[in-house]
Every structure is written in structure tokens, then in C-alpha cells.
Sequence to fold (115 residues):
Amino acid sequence: MKISAPLTEKRYVVPFILGHHLFFLWAIGVNINDILIQHLKKAFNLTRLSVLACAYGFFRRLTFSPPCPAGWLMQRLGYKRGILNRTADCATGAFLFIPAASIRVYGFFLCSLYL
Fold:
């Protein structure tokens, strides 16, 4: 009977589970964006151009797609701090929706969505 090696060491199980859940939570945010855009369109009587600005604000990775900013940031921060930085950015953007909903200013929604 052949005994196979474990899939991962025990010390990596908790970080693996946390990373898995983190990407799952990010996926929820990505998928709920289409619903959010339709509600913003109704609430602010947006034109198609404004809706595109909202969609672009969500996909900020388009501004970080070129190798220079993203590569420089990862080289400077490192992988772990880069993920923590992105998670903090997402949390900040999510919490900014609370005051944006109170004052009902479309530009504030775009800024929080960009984060």
C-alpha cells in the first residue's frame, strides 16, 4: 500500500482557508456590482455614459493593469502586505457607502466604488 504525501503542511492550512474565503468574498462583491449599477441608475436618473463610469469605477484594475504601477506596488510591498492593502482598500470602499447613501451624491458613490 502506497502512502501519499499530504496536500499541504499543517501550518499552511489556516492561511489557505483564510485566502480561499477572502477570494470568495471578493467574488460576491464583483457579482453584486451589476445589481448595484441598476439601482444607482434608477436612484440618480443616470445616462448610459454615467453607468459606464460606474462600471469603470468598479474595475479599477484597468488603471492598475499596466505592469508599472501594479508590479512596482507588489515589489515594494510584497505579496502578503499587498493582499492586506487591497483588503483594506475594499473595506474602506465598502464603509464609504454608508455616508454616500446618507448624502446621496453620485460622485461619492463613484469614489467609494473605485476604492
The first helix runs from residue 13 to 44. The helical segments are 13-44, 48-58, 61-64, 67-77, 79-103, 106-114. The chain has six helices and no strands. The two ends are 53 Å apart (CA to CA).
